[in-house]
Amino acid sequence: MGWVPRSHVAIRAGELKSLLADDHRARLVLDFVGGSGLPVVYAGIGSRERGAGRTAMAPAV
């Protein structure tokens, strides 16, 4: 790995859609995930075999 110049690193807060062109294909994914009824998916996540297990990855990811 090469050296990373730390002076070039920046963290910007903002909405992802504002960074995408109006016709970008990623907007389809964002709209699908945003309107897909994730509470139903979250309700199905539970414990297995008498234990809680590890933390589940968020389905939205």
Give a written overview of the molecule:
This protein has 61 residues and is an all-alpha fold. The protein has one domain. It contains two helices and no strands. The chain has helices spanning 26-34, 38-43. The chain is flat, with a radius of gyration of 18 Å. It starts with 25 loop residues before the first helix and ends in an 18-residue tail after the last helix. The relative contact order is 0.09.
3D shape? flat
Whole-Å distance between the termini? Answer: 27 Å
Number of domains: 1
Largest sheet, strands/sense/barrel: none
Average pLDDT, rounded to a whole number, is: 74
Low-confidence stretches: none
User: How many beta-strand elements?
Assistant: 0
Q: What is the structural class?
A: mainly alpha
Fraction of helical residues: 10-25%
Order of helices and strands: HH
Radius of gyration: 18 Å
Question: DSSP strand (E) fraction?
Answer: under 5%
Alpha plus pi helix count? 2
